[in-house]
Design a protein that fits this description.
Blueprint (H helix, E strand, L loop, with lengths): L2 H4 L5 H13 L5 E5 L6 H13 L9 H7 L6 E4 L9 H11 L9 E5 L7 H12 L5 E7 L7 H4 L3 E4 L5 H12 L3 H10 L4 H9 L1 H15 L6 H11 L4 H18 L5 H41 L12 H10 L2 H17 L6 H17 L6
Parallel strand pairs: 1-4, 1-5, 2-3, 3-4
Helix pairs in contact: 2-3, 3-4, 5-6, 8-9, 8-10, 9-10, 11-14, 12-17, 13-14, 14-15, 14-16, 16-17
Length: 376
């Protein structure tokens, strides 16, 4: 049975629909998963993809299932917009070309495209033939939180699967069930993971990431008293967190390539290497955005204090510093700082170096909150 799909408890109607689809062997060529951010669309898409690439409907034990679970299967590709205005036509042409190639390891290929409301007319036109006449070995899963903005030419060619909004309390309870952690840690994890339960689970299980969050909160606490040199030094230290997760992924990929070298041709190996590179880039971006989300959650807490909602704080372990900050900053400055975090998150799509992003973010947030500082 499809092990990962069976574990989807937060979207029971979607889970039952996809389970019956897999059991009947009648998966269609294209799906549109539509629902609000934080509703678990990507997690469900990856679970569905696992069931599609597994020869036993997602047994949970074979090599295909294990790689899918680790988000490292060469025949499951996750794509997100790389341009300032959304998807680049070159991205879509690459997906179209890849969809014509045979699977590397499984008998099926799955493409998961995030934020497809950002598919412009040119990129969508390049994609239409693949949507209309895909290979029988290919399934496309498109994700959106704004279905009304998806081009009608795309929408009409997909089976729409609606996701409901999931209350934060349910997400926290699910994470506690999976990991066995304290609800306070689970709530923090949910809020810094961008709605991805998989990333939230990784956070809860990683002492390195938990310590990284504490370091970020300490840096924010000392923001007003820090000059430029102190902030740049802090940013350098914060850029190093999470390296063990990336190292583990690299080691796993190297082992897979060594094994695959005995039975795959040069072309298939190149495809696998490209898939590994994409997976490593995706994880690097996730960990970077997690840093930004910690800063964002702290700023949100300060705004809540200024609004008199002290009981809703996410970072309750930093309550005293948050209360002190709320006494000395303006709402306008806080909103400008939040906007700086949003811009910083998107910078990774342009391959801006992590260190440069963190340097600029800390300097800009400090100036937004406390005004210009003299450099040392």
């Amino acid at each position: 049975m499809p092990a990962m799909l069976e574990q989807i408890t937060l979207q029971p109607q979607v889970r039952d629909l996809l389970l019956s689809t897999v059991a009947a062997g009648r998966a269609t060529h294209a799906y549109l998963f539509s629902g609000p951010k934080g509703s678990g669309k990507l997690d469900v898409a990856c679970a569905f993809a696992q069931a599609l690439v597994c020869e036993d409907q997602g047994c949970g034990h074979c090599i295909d299932c294990k790689k899918a679970l680790l988000r490292n299967h060469p025949d499951i590709r996750v794509v997100h917009p790389a341009g300032a205005q959304g998807y680049l036509i070159e991205q879509i042409r690459e997906v179209v070309s890849d969809a014509t190639r045979a699977p590397i390891q499984a008998k099926h290929k799955v493409f998961i495209l995030e934020d497809v409301e950002q598919l412009g007319t040119s990129a969508a036109n390049a994609f239409l033939k693949t949507l209309e006449e895909p290979s029988s070995r290919v399934t496309l899963i498109l994700l959106t939180s704004r279905q009304e903005s998806v081009l009608s030419t795309i929408l009409s060619r997909c089976q729409v699967v609606a996701f409901r909004s999931v209350p934060e309390a349910d997400l926290v309870a699910e994470l506690v069930r999976r990991v066995g952690c304290q609800p306070s840690l689970a709530r923090v994890a949910v809020n810094v993971s961008g709605g991805s339960l998989d990333l939230a689970e990784t956070f809860c299980r990683s002492e390195e990431l938990i310590d990284l969050r504490k370091s970020i909160l300490k840096t924010l606490e000392n923001l007003e008293a820090s000059d430029d040199w102190m902030l740049l030094k802090a940013a350098s230290a914060l850029s190093a967190g999470g390296e063990s997760i990336l190292d583990d992924l690299k080691a796993q990929q190297a082992e897979e390539l060594e094994v695959a070298g005995d039975f795959l041709g040069r072309g298939a190996l190149k495809q696998m290497e490209a898939g590994h590179k994409r997976a490593l880039t995706a994880m690097t971006r996730q960990l970077f955005r997690l840093r930004c989300s910690v800063v964002e959650s702290w700023l949100r807490d300060v705004l809540l204090v200024k609004a008199g909602c002290n009981q809703l704080l996410i970072n309750d372990d930093a309550r005293q510093a948050i209360l002190a900050c709320a006494q000395s900053v303006s709402e306008t400055g806080l909103l400008c700082a939040c906007d700086a975090v949003t811009r910083c998150k998107s910078a990774m799509d342009y391959n801006v170096q992590l260190q440069i992003c963190l340097d600029a973010l800390l300097l800009e947030v400090r100036e937004d909150l406390y005004g210009p500082h003299n450099s040392r």
